[in-house]
Amino acid sequence: FRLALIQLHVSAVKSDNLQRACGLVREASAKGAKLVALPECFNSPYGTQYFKEYAEKIPGESTQKLSEVAKECSIYLIGGRSIPEEDGGKLYNTCAVFGPDGALLAKHRKVHLFDINVPGKIQFKESETLSPGNSFSMFDTPYCKVGLGICYDMRFAEMAQIYGQKGCQLLVYPGAFNMTTGPAHWELLQRGRAVDNQLYVATVSPARDEKASYVAWGHSTVVNPWGEVIAKAGAEETVVYTDIDLKKLAEIRQQIPILSQKRCDLYGVEMKK
What we know:
By secondary structure, the protein is α/β, with parallel strands linked by helices. It has helices at about 15-30, 50-55, 60-75, 155-165, 180-195, 245-255, 260, and strands at about 1-5, 35, 75-80, 85, 90-100, 105-110, 115-120, 120-125, 140, 145-150, 170-175, 200-205, 220-225, 230, 240-245. It has a single domain, classed as Carbon-nitrogen hydrolase (Nitrilase/N-carbamoyl-D-aminoacid amidohydrolase). Strands 1, 2, 3, 4, 5, 6 and 15 form a 7-stranded mixed β-sheet that branches. Strands 9-10-11-12-13-14 form a 6-stranded mixed β-sheet, covered by helices on one side. Strand 11, helix 5 and strand 12 (about 200-205) form a beta-alpha-beta unit.
């Protein structure tokens, strides 16, 4: 099946972001994409100072638009971190997924908050305004089962391993790595998660905006279960297309059967809730 990653240029005007995102979703659908993903923070600038201002409830304006365009195009739509979600007085970094009938299939709240300090390069603390999610998020399609993470979640191998154990064959991480961590780890982490679990990994970033307070790395990417990069964007706004070949996934798992060779008598990773 065809996967499309929309590397969107994000402005400070929410309505413009929504309009352009929906237009690119329609374009991707017209080119045969059955599963379309938007980037982290696609309807607002990325930064702790913006989260409260742009926050919405779910359902709300942004998710309603996503639901409508998913139904219109009859596709599965991963809404990036569509919005900072407000719920019960707390804010979450949330990704909503919609099916071809417009129904909400999954709602992933970012589990691992991006609190880092690389002296002289970048300091960021999502926990100043956001609360963490506390659950894994998976959804089924006629093609395969898909596991969700958001950006920093990709650094945690245990989360990807759980998704693999639960039958996911594709992991999608809307993300916005920066100009420090992006060149160093963006592709490396994707290839690691893909090889470790013998599945496809897709990451979808906002396009790079050098004038933004937080500059995203871009380079939305798809990696196959062999660890090969099979599709990759540059820094500009674009749509990345690739065909997910589950036959190739099955062949790789048969050739190198690590999933059945794990020593569960010696070690293990488990989902607690």
